[in-house]
Each structure stands twice: as structure tokens, then as C-alpha cells.
Design a protein that fits this description.
CATH architecture: Alpha-Beta Barrel
Oligomer: single chain
Low-confidence stretches: none
Mean pLDDT: 95
Number of helices: 15
Strand content: 5-15%
Number of strands: 14
Order of helices and strands: EHHHEHHEHHEHHEEHHHEEEEHEHEEEH
Distance between the termini: 9 Å
Number of domains: 1
Radius of gyration: 21 Å
Length: 480
């Protein structure tokens, strides 16, 4: 029995955010535009995210939620104080590349941008909260897209290395935990959001995306190398948008299809954790006539600079089949296509809810890599209703998180080494996939609607005190 069993001593509890979903102040203090600054709210957002964008300029007909977001740029002290009240040990955040290098290829960094993050880190230190920093969280300066075609161009490797070194040198005494690219495998599904990539009519999609992926993998390895030289006692990891695929039936073809779909994502982490392209990836590249822009120096850099830990997001499992007829019955909402699983529920946005899948996925990652794991995103997007007295009873969120944390604890009992957990969106923020505010994840409510109306006032939900108790008891309050 694991009832009332605590998590490992020193477990890092906290919450996770991204610069483009919370900061706002999109032009403040010299910041340049990023790819996500061009992504509107509404039905066109996913079209843009997938790279079907015909303009790299802002358009009057759209509302861009990242421009104000929840204004963390000006409210970070208030928000961090609330995180500290919950007892956070760690706060996962990202740095906006265009806040540091507005054009991406500038000769010198923007001091005001650097100082902003200095101030955030100092505020976190005041409460003994450890920052966990993503160097790139769906964040590409627009000028790099206009002038270099984003990550299609291997010149971005050098720009990213310079950016990373700038961060390591500036914050070496303030940040010990780093992640290179957020959900690096999302590049294959949301190419503009993930890597600032648009696919032209005359281009082979797979060739473009896998070469861009290679450039990011080499850039990640160079960042690992730089961090280890500049911050010897630091830790740097990679990040996967995780969630294993189930076969729809026990038919061997369905089982192989599920394995193949898992490998589509694991390929990125195989390279970052093991230092070379796996055999199945080489076969895929060969059979699809994809020639990588790979050099002998690339191979050496990848081999010699593997990550310290594997971080991952988990929201849902997926189900697939080798039968084209079965594939017609797909769930809505999630970026990763999935057949509707009759044994699981779905959220208001059509995402599969599968706590047991969290345990299975965690075990898969541990068995595959044997490196420390860090859960850096997990949460439920839902519509919250404010009661007349201002309270918010989000028992559905508490239930979701309790079930998932119970399964994570079971995975740790299985022998998986998990060093921390940061719930996604400890404070309401802009949804990456939809651009909405009504798809809320937080323990802290932010008064703002999808049209941008609201006071931005912060208030605690019922889940605030629940999570505070989870942290205070080191998971002992989680119910089986």
C-alpha cells in the first residue's frame, strides 16, 4: 500500500510556465517580436502554429494574446509571493530569446532584458525557490525567421549557442537547472510554433522538419557543452512532450504501429540522451529520401554532450491502429492524433484523461534512458466558474492532479528516479494550443477573458490550498 507515503526527500515541487504565455510586455524595454507574438487567438491559431502562415507581420484583424498575456512582466513579485505561499521549491520558467537578442543575431545582448530576468531570479531566491529555466520555449525571434527561415538554417545553431552562453555567464550564480528546448518533438506537429518554420509548396515537409530538428539537436548539444564548462555544478536536461501510444487491439500490426508512433517522439530524446541517431531513425531517413545536413563535427558534438536528466510533459495517453478505417474515429483537441479510447475519459477540450498512462509513460522513460526524470508539465485545462463570493471550487482539478500524482508516486515505487514535479500553469495563463484564457490550469485565477477583458486581478482557487498541503506533506496527503 502507498497510502500517505511521501515522495523522496528533497523532491522538487512547484509549477511551470512559459515566457510567451505569461509575460506580456511584448515590445517593452527593447524586446523583439517572436513567432508566438504572431499567433492570434481563435480558429486560425492552430493553422499558424502548423506553419500555414502567409505573413510575418502583425495584422489588425487579429487579437494576439501573448502581447499582454497575464502581464507577469509587471506582476512577477505578486505572483512569486503566491507561489512561495504554496511552498514551491522550484519554479519552471522560460527566457524569451527576443528579450535578450531582439533580432536573434544581434552583436550585443539587450541589457534591460537581462536585468528583468535578474530581478525575477532575485525574487525567487528571496523565497528559496529554485529556478528551472527553459532556454527556448516555443520562442524564435521573428527576424531570424524573416532573414534565415528559422531553424531550417543551420546558422541558427551559432545564434542559439551565443544566446545560451550569454545566459549561462550572466546567471551562473542564480540558475542551476536548465532545459534546452521545450517539447522538442512538437517541431514535427506545430512547426511554426516549435521552430519558426513555414513549409513552402515546393519543399518536402519531412526533409525540412528533420533537418530543422537536426539543427536544434546540435544546438542543444552545444548548449549542454557550454553549461558544463561555465556552470560545473549545474544540471541541464532535454524535454519531451510525452504520452505513450496504446495499440487499439492486440493485433501485431497495431502493436508495432504504437511502438512506431512512440519512436517518432523518442527519437529526439534518444539523440540528446545517448548521443547518436538510433537505427530506426536512420532507416526512416533513408526510406523517406531525407538527407540530413550533418557533419562529422555534428556527430562528435552530439556524442560528447548528452543531457543530465530527462524532463517531460504528460497530459494524456494516445491510441493508434494500423487499420485506416479505425483511424477515422479520432479525438479532438490534442495536437497528437489519437483514436478515442473507450476505457478513458476526456477533458472539455477532448484531451484523453489517463492517470495510469502517466505511470506507464514514466516507467517507459526510466527503462529507456536510466537517467533522472523531471516532470515539468502536467495539468487540466478547464472552465472555472467564479462563485458570487469570489471563491472558485475546482474540485475537478484537484481530482485530476491527485489521481496523476498518485500514479507518479507508484512509478517512483516501481523504481523510477523522479527528481521533481511542476504542474502546468500554477497561475492561469494563455493556452498555447488555443490562445484562450478560459482554458484554465491554475491554482491562481486571473481575471481576464478570451477577448482580453478583465482586471488581471489574482485570486486563489480551492486547489491552491490543496496543492499547498501536498507540498507541505511532501505528497503524503495524496489519496490513493
Amino acid at each position: 500500500m502507498t497510502e500517505n507515503k511521501q515522495f523522496p526527500e528533497g523532491f522538487l515541487w512547484g509549477g511551470a510556465t512559459a515566457a510567451n504565455q505569461i509575460e506580456g510586455a511584448y515590445k517593452a524595454d527593447g524586446k523583439g517580436l517572436t513567432n508566438v507574438d504572431l499567433m492570434p487567438t481563435g480558429s486560425d491559431r492552430i493553422t499558424f502554429a502548423k506553419g500555414n502562415i502567409n505573413s510575418l507581420d502583425l495584422q489588425d484583424k487579429y487579437m494576439y494574446p501573448s502581447h499582454e498575456a497575464i502581464d507577469f512582466y509587471h506582476t512577477y513579485k505578486e505572483d512569486i509571493k503566491l507561489f512561495a505561499e504554496m511552498g514551491f521549491k522550484v519554479f519552471r520558467m522560460s527566457i524569451s530569446w527576443a528579450r535578450i537578442f531582439p533580432n536573434g543575431d544581434d552583436s550585443e545582448p539587450n541589457e534591460k532584458g537581462l536585468q528583468f530576468y535578474d530581478d525575477v531570479f532575485d525574487e525567487l531566491k528571496k523565497y528559496d525557490i529554485e529556478p528551472l529555466v527553459s532556454i527556448a520555449h516555443f520562442d524564435v525571434p521573428v527576424e531570424l525567421i524573416k532573414n534565415y527561415d528559422g531553424w531550417k538554417n543551420r546558422k541558427l545553431i551559432d545564434f542559439f549557442e551565443k544566446y545560451s552562453i550569454t545566459l549561462f555567464e550572466r546567471y551562473k550564480d542564480k540558475v542551476k537547472y536548465w532545459i534546452t528546448f521545450n517539447e522538442i518533438n512538437m517541431l514535427l506537429h506545430l512547426s511554426f510554433m516549435g521552430a519558426g518554420i513555414t513549409i513552402n509548396e515546393n519543399e518536402d515537409r519531412n526533409s525540412v522538419l528533420y533537418n530543422a530538428a537536426h539543427h536544434q539537436l546540435v544546438a542543444s548539444a552545444k548548449a549542454v557543452k557550454a553549461m558544463k564548462e561555465i556552470i560545473p555544478d549545474g544540471q541541464i536536461g532535454c524535454m519531451l512532450a510525452a504520452g505513450m501510444f496504446y495499440p487499439y487491439t492486440p493485433a501485431p500490426d497495431d502493436i508495432f504501429k504504437a511502438m512506431d508512433k512512440d519512436r517518432e517522439s523518442y527519437f529526439f530524446i534518444d539523440v540528446q540522451a545517448r548521443g547518436e541517431y538510433p537505427g530506426y531513425a536512420k532507416r526512416f531517413l533513408k526510406e523517406n529520401n531525407i538527407t540530413l545536413d550533418i557533419t562529422e563535427d555534428d556527430k562528435k558534438v552530439l556524442k560528447e554532450n548528452t543531457v543530465d536528466f530527462i524532463s517531460y510533459s504528460y497530459y494524456s495517453s494516445r491510441t493508434t491502429s494500423a487499420d485506416p478505417e479505425v483511424l477515422k474515429d479520432m479525438t479532438a483537441g490534442n495536437v497528437f492524433g489519437s483514436i478515442k479510447n473507450p476505457y478513458t475519459e476526456v477533458s472539455e477540450w477532448g484531451w484523453t484523461i489517463d492517470p495510469k498512462g502517466f505511470r506507464i509513460t514514466t516507467n517507459q522513460l526510466w527503462d529507456r534512458y536510466q537517467k533522472p526524470l523531471f516532470v515539468v508539465e502536467n495539468g487540466l485545462g478547464a472552465v472555472d466558474t467564479v462563485n458570487p463570493d469570489g471563491s472558485i471550487d475546482d474540485d475537478y482539478r484537484i481530482d485530476y492532479l491527485n489521481q496523476h500524482l498518485h500514479e507518479l508516486r507508484e512509478a517512483i515505487e516501481d523504481g523510477c528516479e523522479v527528481i521533481g514535479y511542476t504542474s502546468w500553469g500554477p497561475i492561469d495563463l494563455v493556452s498555447a494550443s488555443t490562445g484562450e484564457m478560459k482554458k484554465r490550469y491554475g491554482f491562481i485565477y486571473v481575471d481576464k477573458d478570451n477577448e482580453g477583458n478583465g482586471t488581471l486581478k489574482r485570486s486563489k482557487k480551492k486547489s491552491f490550498d490543496w496543492y499547498k498541503n501536498v507540498i507541505a506533506t511532501n505528497g503524503g496527503s495524496i489519496k490513493s
